[in-house]
Write a structure and sequence with these properties.
Strand content: 5-15%
Largest sheet: 5 strands, parallel
CATH topology: Rossmann fold
Number of strands: 5
Number of helices: 12
CATH architecture: 3-Layer(aba) Sandwich
Shape: globular
Distance between the termini: 111 Å
CATH class: Alpha Beta
Length: about 280
């Protein structure tokens, strides 16, 4: 009889232990990353292990899923969100972290934008792209909240990785996108949380990989810190100092793009000087 009582007690203890483990697993917040090559970790040779989203998840002990695709624009993201796997991830997410908007300027527009900005000082095309971003942003946020009304959306601002003549063009693009992000947050209280990555990534030699487009390992750690602070300030995180479980490794041999862009920048600057001299006469 005594042995039977002990067996029953042991069974009850084991049952409660199992239920506690199950409850702990269920309580783990689901953290989903969407967006472009920045969110994917293209500046790293080990992006899956060391991109900022992984750092955020490891620090706050989130269940982590990353569906970012290099090269994606806001239009691409809207289509990506309708894929079955991504839609399911959005539906079950507690937090959705998005990096998007840089490619709206970069893809198919950069040389024309450089000509407009450096040679003509004409930013009408920039304004048109920013207006398109604004429209897409509203659709993205609305669609996420249709699928999951209770999820928190963290949207990152766009940084400027360039210097010199090209840096001026990038800054004009980034400023316009960021103005739309801040305006959306102000005009739609509670719909998005803004992680101001642009203010954190300012060291062009340290924060960016050789391509001077994507964050380096150090840059990813800075982004993680900004996102962690944003989450903590809004009661969604447990810590603000990044926990690095796997050190990031910077991608090498990616400087050709930057070389080409800088050559374009110098060429357009020469054109601008010639044009100004011609207009004087």
């Amino acid at each position: 009889m005594k042995q039977k009582i002990i067996s029953v007690i042991l069974c009850i203890v084991m049952l409660f232990a199992a239920l506690s483990v199950f409850a702990g697993a269920e309580a783990q917040p689901r953290y989903v990353v969407l967006g472009d090559s920045i969110a994917y970790g293209s500046g790293l040779s080990n992006p899956k292990a060391a991109v900022y989203g992984k750092i955020v998840a490891d620090t706050n002990k989130y269940a982590y899923e990353n569906y970012a695709i290099p090269g994606h624009t806001t239009d691409n993201l809207l289509r990506r969100m309708e894929e079955k796997t991504v839609k399911q991830a959005i539906t079950g997410a507690d937090i959705i972290n998005i990096s998007i908007g840089g490619n709206n300027f970069l893809l198919g527009n950069l040389s024309a934008l450089m000509y407009d900005g450096i040679v003509k000082a004409d930013y009408a095309r920039f304004d048109k792209i920013a207006a398109g971003f604004e429209e897409d942003l509203g659709t993205i946020v609305s669609r996420i909240h249709e699928l999951n009304p209770h999820t928190a959306i963290v949207l990152q601002t766009i940084y400027n990785p360039q210097t010199g003549y090209v840096g001026d063009v990038y800054q004009n693009g980034a400023d316009r996108i960021n103005a739309k992000i801040w305006a959306y947050a102000q005009n739609h209280p509670g719909e998005i949380l803004v992680a101001d990555v642009a203010s954190a990534l300012t060291d062009s030699d340290r924060d960016f990989a050789e391509d001077h487009i994507h964050p380096s390992a150090a840059g990813n750690e800075k982004i993680a810190q900004v996102v962690l602070q944003t989450l903590f300030d809004n009661g969604l995180g447990t810590g603000t100092q990044p926990v690095i479980t796997t050190p990031g490794r910077d991608a090498r041999g990616t400087g050709a793009f930057t070389l080409m862009v800088n050559l374009y920048g110098r060429f357009f600057h020469v054109l601008a000087v010639i044009r100004s001299q011609f207009l004087r006469h």
